[in-house]
Design brief:
With about 475 residues, the protein is of the alpha/beta class. Helix content is about 55%, strand content about 10%.
Length: about 475
């Protein structure tokens, strides 16, 4: 999902970066392009109009500051407004003072409710909770069995009985009490389309459960239909949020971008695959950054947390903060990166990579060539690649068994990467203010980033962009 949108933004922002000054006409043109990109991505028309208007106001107003290039300022504004459209802050679960915290899942048939129930159970366990699943879908004989299998795979018990859904819900509550479970997740039946009978059933279940959280589970692939059904369910049930599923599919992403504004409820979680592990809290800021090609750095950091060597990472962060990042750092990061497994998935989250690189099927051989090139450099060359003239480049190409084109490509990409590291607001994300001129121009609206900073410190890991040559 979001590939087309990300591609379009890649083009728009690249053109933008090549401009020195931005007059009203240029801003208008960029806005037009962004508008078309969003509409193509199936974003709700009202949402597009509103978003564009907010960006326009900020880009033509007095907000523009001198410390950023015009392109950086526009990107910063677009990023912030896109984040706002996606819902701003991630949803935070507040647990009931008197357990269990009850979570009700509703949605159409096949939307991914049963899968999401198990994924949520796993997620709650990771939060240190002790959940119980309840199978209140008695429509299809196999539904409860499916939940039992999934429940078992995540180590969470499933309660159900062959009575009726409302009775199961009531008994489930009692069972959670009896077993001392602090979270109750209730899976319900869906229909192919919204009908009164379905709405009536979930409403009655909801009446018995008095859930703390009611999530509407919806298939991202259904685009604007997803948004429309969410509106209908919200009227019937007063939703707390949406669980967007099948985000791994090739949907254009319009649903994700429209839900918050049209339904008025945030996306709480996204499901990116059939397995319960492929499920995560929805982070508007991360998705916005990712759509804008700034990379999903924080998700990557979380992903890397276990595999990454703390010391190496902290050293890299320190270097980045000093605005220094050498080929030696790069090499170290590359080796860390390799520990994380297949590179293709990791690359998609990295900031600033051209889409050809992101979409490329990377195997370790490609990385080995980059490593070979760096190994063929002398320590002083690694420290300061500007000394690399033609004859040195030829020596390196020969020494590494590559070509001068490959060496040139790597050098060019490395330079871009260094520049980006310095100029991106990411410098702030990395836990220090001095790292980049990029994010320092804004006044308000950054508090969230600094909120993240602490968390980042704890993890203390960072992954630079891994360029590679062909
Ligand atoms: N690719 C993909 N498949 C999913 C995802 N979530 C659910 N599915 C699949 O979609 C189908 C319907 O899911 P299910 O949980 O049974 O939907 P329910 O009818 O709403 O309970 C199943 O084959 C799931 O494995 C997802 O995020 N990605
Ligand atoms: Mg089901």
């Amino acid at each position: 999902m979001f590939e087309t949108l990300t591609d379009r933004f890649d083009g728009i922002l690249t053109r933008l970066r090549s401009r020195g000054r931005l007059g009203d006409a240029e801003v208008a043109e960029v806005l037009r392009e962004i508008r078309v990109a969003l509409l193509e991505a199936d974003v709700n028309l009202e949402v597009v109009r509103d978003l564009i208007e907010r960006i326009r106001l900020r880009c033509t107003g007095a907000e523009l500051s001198k410390s950023l290039t015009p392109a950086q300022q526009v990107i910063k504004v677009v990023n912030e407004e896109l984040t706002a459209t996606l819902g701003g802050e991630p949803l935070k679960i507040t647990y009931a003072s008197r357990p269990p915290t009850v979570v009700l899942l509703a949605g159409l048939q096949g939307s991914g409710k049963t899968t999401a129930a198990a994924s949520l159970a796993r997620w709650f366990r990771q939060q240190g909770r002790n959940p119980l699943l309840v199978g209140a879908d008695l429509q299809r004989p196999a539904a409860v069995e499916q939940l039992r299998v999934l429940g078992q795979s995540v180590g969470v018990g499933v309660f159900s009985e062959p009575t009726d859904p409302v009775a199961v819900a009531r008994a489930g509550l009692a069972e959670a009490d009896r077993l001392g479970r602090d979270v109750l997740i209730v899976d319900t039946a869906g229909r192919l389309a919204i009908d009164e009978e379905l709405m009536d059933e979930v409403r009655r279940i909801s009446g018995v459960l008095k859930p703390h959280y009611t999530f509407f589970v919806v298939d991202a692939m259904t685009g604007q239909d997803a948004v429309r059904t969410a509106v209908a369910f919200n009227e019937a049930l007063a939703l707390d949020g949406v669980i967007l599923t099948k985000v791994d599919g090739d949907a254009r992403g319009g649903a994700a971008l429209s839900v918050k504004q049209v339904v008025g409820k945030p996306i709480a979680f996204v499901s990116t695959g059939e397995r319960p592990a492929e499920f995560e809290t929805f982070h508007p800021d991360r998705l916005a950054s990712r759509i804008l090609g700034m990379g999903d750095v924080l998700s990557l950091i979380e992903k890397a947390e276990r595999e990454y060597d703390q010391d190496v990472a902290e050293k890299a962060v320190a270097r980045l903060q000093q605005g220094r990042f050498t080929f030696d750092d790069f090499l170290e990061q590359l080796q860390q990166l390799k520990k994380m497994g297949p590179l293709t998935g990791v690359l998609g989250m990295l900031p600033g990579l051209p889409k050809e690189v992101k979409n490329a099927q990377i195997d370790d051989k490609d990385v080995s060539r980059v490593e070979a090139i760096i190994h063929s450099m002398t320590p002083s060359e690694r420290d300061d690649p500007t000394v690399l003239d033609g004859s040195r480049r030829l020596r390196i190409a020969n020494g590494s068994g590559t070509t001068t084109t490959e060496v040139n490509n790597l050098l060019r990409q490395f330079k871009e990467m260094q520049k980006m590291m310095r100029s991106m607001p990411m410098g702030r994300l990395l836990g220090g203010g001095s790292g980049g001129s990029g994010g320092s121009g804004g006044s308000g609206g950054r508090s969230k980033k600094s909120g993240n900073r602490k968390k980042q410190k704890g993890g203390g890991r960072v992954t630079p962009s891994s360029r590679h040559t062909r």
